[in-house]
Design goal:
The protein is mainly β and about 375 residues long. The chain starts with 10 loop residues before the first helix and ends with a strand. The chain has a 16-stranded antiparallel β-barrel. It has a single domain, classed as Porin, CATH 2.40.160. Helix content is about 5%, strand content about 55%. β11 and β12 form a beta hairpin. The chain is built from 3 helices and 18 strands. It is globular. The longest helix is centred in the N-terminal third of the chain and has 9 residues. About 40% of the residues are buried.
């Protein structure tokens, strides 16, 4: 999850132009010469929420103000075929490296990225928070690079959907692919130093989604034409879980779909859905690490009115192999000012599902969110 898109103009560009006489302004980028350029941008998501029975006394509503995401983006081109991308994110109260990618892009059909990047996964993880349809899209279990057990003995499999590795990606007409190999979870369980393999394949049955690389969106607010896309993702790592004496493997796959159609009355209907299945195999009856084993699904339906108001409803269900099932319903409204670059959201959620896949507290939440990107 947590991706970046084409990097638009930032206020920082103006100060850089003043500080240096050599770069020239060219189409929202700092132009160094005929082939080299650099672009700088930023993204911010913040929200306020009221949560039932979440105060310290256990019965009062809790008021939470959250800085959900704060990012700086730097993209550049070194030659006609080589580019770079670097991004930061607020992580656990501090700021750290989110992405750091060397990008070899010779054609639409075949490209290679190497460094720290999103592992190929399902649509909601390829969206990142800025390009989702609902405000709370991360309520089903996430792949290892987003699950991040990070508990020392079991190692970790990346953060915010990222991991160090290499991805080959491209598109053949309406077929899109991404195939990657990554470090995955390390630690005592992975005595064989087995890597994580990740793939995503998608086919656009109607108009082709015009996204950078293998990234995705869950709504285009009616601007991308008639969309009907089916995606399949899978990840596998041997000896990636457990302990040195009881290691196991992870296998997961997801099937996701997106339908969006502008209507003659000026409205746009959007339907998004996903089914996901994870299997964690160890000799122990209950694996001793924080990773979901079981099935999950969600379905979202939205209707955009006059290009501004987008009411939606989303239902989620998580069904672990061991443990109680959980569900969540979200009813919300996006107020779209400038696509994904500037929108407001008001939503109400009720239920006990969350991204860990484990049953959480059954609470009702009302939240208001603001999202901006430059």
């Amino acid at each position: 999850m947590h991706k970046r898109r084409t990097i638009p103009q930032s206020l920082l560009i103006g100060s850089l132009l003043v500080a240096s006489a050599s770069p020239l302004w060219a189409g929202g980028k700092i132009k160094i010469d005929d082939t080299r350029w650099i672009s700088i941008g930023a993204g911010l998501r913040t929200s306020a929420a009221s949560v039932s029975d979440a105060a310290p006394d256990g019965s009062s509503r809790a008021s939470n103000f959250n800085l959900e995401s704060a990012r700086l983006y730097i993209a550049g081109q070194v030659s006609d075929q080589f580019k770079l991308y670097f991004g930061t994110e607020k992580m656990f109260g501090d700021y750290g490296v989110l992405d750091a990618i060397v990008q070899y892009e010779p054609s639409k059909k075949f490209n290679i990225w190497m460094g720290r990047m999103l592992t190929p996964a399902d649509r909601i993880e390829m969206n990142g928070p800025f390009y989702g349809l609902s405000w709370n899209q991360y309520t089903v279990p996430l792949y290892p690079s987003d699950n991040d057990p990070a508990n020392g003995a079991n190692g970790r499999a990346g953060t915010y959907g990222r991991d160090e590795g290499v991805t080959v990606w491209g598109s053949l007409n309406k077929f899109q692919y991404a195939i990657g190999v990554f470090n995955g979870i390390s630690g005592p369980a992975n005595q064989s130093d087995a890597p994580l393999f990740a793939v995503r394949f998608a086919y656009n049955f109607l108009d082709k989604e015009a996204n950078p690389a293998y990234y995705t969106s869950s709504t285009y607010f009616g601007t991308a034409g008639n969309i009907l896309t089916l995606g399949v993702s899978a990840q596998y790592q041997d000896d990636g879980y457990g302990t040195a004496t009881d290691s196991g493997s992870f296998t997961g796959y997801a099937i996701d779909g997106l339908f969006e159609k502008p209507l003659s009355n000026g409205g746009t209907i959007t339907v998004e859905g996903e089914y996901k299945s994870f299997d964690v195999s160890t000799q122990a009856a209950t694996p001793n690490f924080a990773m979901f084993d079981g099935d999950a699904y969600f379905l979202t339906v939205a209707y955009l009115i006059s290009g501004r108001h987008q009411p939606y409803i989303r239902v989620t269900n998580n069904d672990p192999t061991n443990g109680d099932s959980s569900d969540l319903t979200e009813i919300g409204m996006n107020y779209v000012i400038s696509g994904h670059n500037l929108r407001l959201n008001l939503n109400y959620t009720t239920g006990d599902a969350n991204a860990s896949g484990e049953k959480g507290a059954d609470v009702d939440t009302i939240s208001f969110g603001m999202q901006v990107q430059l």
